[in-house]
Known about the structure:
3 domains, PyrdxlP-dep_Trfase_small (chains A, B), Arc Repressor Mutant, subunit A, four-stranded antiparallel β-sheet, alpha/beta, homodimer, Aspartate Aminotransferase, domain 1, Aspartate Aminotransferase, domain 2, nine-stranded mixed β-sheet, DNA-binding (chains A, B), 16 helices
Amino acid sequence: MKRYQALAADIAASIRNGTLKPGDKLPSVRRASASRHLSPATVFQAYYLLEAKGLIRARDRSGYYVAHGAKALPPEPETASKPDGEARPVVISELVVRILESAMTRDVVPLGSAFPSPLLFPFERLGRATAVAMSQLDPWSTVSELAPGSHALRQQIALRYLVDGIHIRPEHIVVTNGAMEALNLCLSAVCKPGDAVLVESPCFYACLQALERFGLHAVEVATDPRDGIDLDALEAAIARHRPAACWLMTNYQNPLGSAMSEAKKHALAALVARHRLPLIEDDVYGELYFDNRRPTPTKGFDGDGWVMHCSSFSKTLAPGYRVGWTSPGRFLKQVTYQKLTTSLATSMPGQLGIARYLERGSFERHLRGLRLSLRKNRDEYIDAIGRHFPAGTKVSRPSGGYFLWLELPGAVDALALHDKAMAAGISIAPGPMFSASRGFGACIRVNYGHPLTARVEAALRTIGKTAIRLAA
Amino acid sequence: MKRYQALAADIAASIRNGTLKPGDKLPSVRRASASRHLSPATVFQAYYLLEAKGLIRARDRSGYYVAHGAKALPPEPETASKPDGEARPVVISELVVRILESAMTRDVVPLGSAFPSPLLFPFERLGRATAVAMSQLDPWSTVSELAPGSHALRQQIALRYLVDGIHIRPEHIVVTNGAMEALNLCLSAVCKPGDAVLVESPCFYACLQALERFGLHAVEVATDPRDGIDLDALEAAIARHRPAACWLMTNYQNPLGSAMSEAKKHALAALVARHRLPLIEDDVYGELYFDNRRPTPTKGFDGDGWVMHCSSFSKTLAPGYRVGWTSPGRFLKQVTYQKLTTSLATSMPGQLGIARYLERGSFERHLRGLRLSLRKNRDEYIDAIGRHFPAGTKVSRPSGGYFLWLELPGAVDALALHDKAMAAGISIAPGPMFSASRGFGACIRVNYGHPLTARVEAALRTIGKTAIRLAA
Lengths: 472, 472
């Protein structure tokens, strides 16, 4: 964060906690510059930013004042979901397809998108790495490195596990066509049609779509918007439904943004081992943390191989390359077989390009920049939502990833809000997409993976206004 | 084919049809050179090649004679298979995995492999095309070109259809992670667990593996080693089993090498339309023809969209890139949905590299060379099998692709032969891999996608000797 941004954040916080009240005059640029030991230009930039956000207003020849519309930050959602605990077949595809299709043109403001801005990724460097890797391709490797994937890439993935203190050998990793394929392979390796699968409430719609395709039943389990699934509820659901698997996102869950503590993950690993329950751990956002270090996934506490850890480079490095992986523990053989018979192998140029890029060691630097961008976006989006959304709107405070979860007040119907937003050229992801029982009718997921431009700010204002009308 | 090879083939044909008999003296190099208008060096090379193949023998200071071991070419298998017509759940995975795994090291002579030599493909040019394509990547395309795939690539695929007289718009093509994924997506788009699917007898084991994974029942239909599935038997099976789909390879079928005539394909297209039966047409070998032109697939006669045509670049251009596609006719929407929820998208570097390569126009030249290499291999392998295998062995005469289908005489057990071959470091593909009812116990598939080196010749000799022992 630059100095002027830090100053602006500081002043914004004072406005929100009431130290500065609407109508209060801000110190002059000159005085602020002296007292804060900053250049006048820096102070001016900060004021300019606060003005652009609508928090302060300039009066001619008189200076800056706290704006009357400046509001406190919206509160966080605090209570865990309360699903009914039933197992049910999933019928979600029509709703999800309708919503995803409506958002698939570039003209739409992508607040409902599942992808961050592609401009955040080092495509040039990756392209050069791919070019070099392909110029050195051993033709025989196209035959010998089929199902488990490129050995060079699996070594790099094993190294990253090792940095996080997790010992996984390259031979225990299967490279896949993105995390989506990894999750599907794990699911089909351990489930047969009619089986029950435990999922979060709410959970990622692609999980529900996979359950629907395989003819599996979803059991939604209570989940807290801050620290994830409720372990007592999980254990009760295991006892009641004898599920074939459990599918969770333990870090920066999509859509909640929740993150389980390490203690909780430790307990979760012990719990699934005790019940001999395969845990499919979707960890695609783990690298996008805003705190000090990568949160250890449940896989890090997995002694007996019940955790099938899935991740990818699609959200961290190389969108479109479709390179993911799984480390499926005791189900390695079954998952490898599923991979062989589903798609045989993962595309070599993508695998080798990423392996080469990782070998060159610039991944960490790129990740640092990516995390800073996303954290900045998060703060600005929460600010903007506070300015534009109806009073009583609750907004999550994710410590990683790029999704906000909003609980709207009153009787706002998220599906109706979606339709009105689309009519204005804006996509949002309405809550019922994330639930087999079509819950969360007053919730939406907002993607903050794109910078808060004037266009995005205007889109948030439009949605906020529409929500205010719908709430009335 | 070079001149000396043509001369050698000519003489070999005379030996086999009896014009030249064992013990006959060949014309001297000088005389042959004069009468054929070839250089003495060319004639000598031809004689040397025939000697290496064991067809002629040099006597000191006397010249070349037809060898006593020189045999007629082995006969072709002629009768169609006679499966029992029952629908049965498929249990094949263990057998197939055991056989594929045993052959997965580079040390093994890959006669049982499903892949041709990787040295037949233009990896350098492809690598350069990929490098250029990735240097021009539009980051936004990684979001907007998800499920159906790169538009540039789909245009190139549509163009190739057009060259063959088939009108398919780019919008009706879904790019997949190889043909394997295309076939799986088509299957899951039109079938649900417990449905019956009609397949050839024998059929490609990956088809059986897919049926097993989806819980589908296989109905094997009589198939002729020359011209493919029996349409009367197919229609009878439709009436009896009310199948959800039919999965066929109409060109150079794996493992038989059979090819359906265009008239038969025309009738097939009409038949499936009449019965409103989805036909999954696996056409990965269609470009590897040895005659004058690409055989039209059934898709070319598909008026009502019942044919789901699947193919890939893996056998023709870019092994390891895992880029295939399907043109699924009336099931476009369902297949696109399956793709979105199975693996979301196909890897961009592979797609864009191939699109760029195709745009540059060197594909046809590469294909011509590839077809010539494979045709030469076919002739040499049939020759060698004639020399080394037990009398009564029947060998198919495929007019494309790279597989021979062998019916062994007597009570040869192909699985036992496989085990003995593996012990000698040679893989073969035993017949029971290709049948849900474990038929074809005396048949094997031989891959001729690798040049007939001394090592391969020795391997064929070893297998032939073992078969002779097992037949006794």
